[in-house]
Amino acid sequence: MSTSDGDQSTSTGEPRPGRIGRWLQRRLSGLRPWWAQLRRDGPSSKRMQSWVAVLGLLATIVFGALPLWLEGKDDGDRDEFTVLKLSAGQSREIDTRKTDEATGRRFTSKERATVLYLYLSNNTDDLKVFQGLKVTTRRFIQVTDCTVDVGGSVQITEGYDIDLPRPGKSTHKSILYQLPPRQAEGISITLGTSTQETGVFDLEVSLQSRTGYLSAGRVIALSHPELKRLYPRDLEKLPLQDFPNASCVRRLDQTLSDFISQHDSVPPEVRTLQEGVHTTAEQLG
Q1: Interatomic CA distance for residues 126 and 129, integer angstroms
Q2: Same domain, 236 and 149
């Protein structure tokens, strides 16, 4: 007969209990006299009432702490939200304030500005409240007409909701946006730039909740919607002083091509810009 617990058997062929089984038997056999005494004493005995009180206290502690544990467990989930769509391919006309730095004159004009659309879904029973919006530039590709001297005075534009930051920098905007439970809604933010630098922005958008900023994703946007029409250049009609530099156009063409190849989702207006630059580069030889 084997001496291992799993192989032991009684003379009748039934398996003997293992070490854990024998331990449970000893514990239960020790409780039998105590349970028999409680039954003899009856439910009105002090011994029974004492044990009922102890068990009731333990149940109160366990079930009272359970909701607190569940509440703490859900704290990390309350700030979660679903981003249905994040895009910056649309534009709208806005009133802007400009300053002619050569003369100091300020004037108002209508401009088309890039609009950021963010659609969110709240799949919980809690009201989601966001107090801030942050836009971070992860990469910026400057796009110019590649002329030696652009000329003209630099203008600072105002009138949009949030300023496009320089590479590696962030711009913050205070908002109060409430997303009701079990609802899906969208917000729109007008993007702009306070400098004359134009180009393609790779942006990360974040929303501020009570626990900090939560990333809503990344989006590619043009500094100005009309930038997509800068190229191709009509070389036959350009005066000599406005003729683009061939090496500058070729570098821009390569940079935009590499940028597009590195991203799965590129807005149509960025592709239109790159195609126009490529056409001009081929014309310049």
Answers
A1: 9
A2: yes
Rg of the Cα trace of the chain?
A: 36
Q: Are residues 172 and 278 in the same domain?
A: yes
Give the model confidence (pLDDT) of 179-226 as tens digits.
999 899 988 888 877 666 789 999 999 999 888 999 999 999 999 889
Predicted pLDDT of residue 132: 92
Residue among 110, 166, 96 nearest 138 (CA) = 166
- Which one is predicted more confidently, 48 or 163? 163
CA quadruple 96, 101, 104, 106: dihedral, nearest 10: -10
Give the separation between CA 246 and CA 285, rounded to whole angstroms.
8
Residue 249 has pLDDT above 80, yes or no: yes
- The number of domains in the chain is 2
CB 155 within 8 A of CB 107: no
DSSP 5: T
Closest C-alpha among 256, 280, 244 to residue 146:
244
All residues at 6 or more sequence positions from 22 whose CB lies less than 8 Å from its CB, including other chains:
none
Domain extent at residue 62: 19-74
Between CA 248 and CA 285 the distance in angstroms is 12
In the beta sheet, which residues pair with residue 200? 141, 222
SS3 167: coil
Residue for token pair 């331990």: 23
**Which residue type occupies 243?**
F
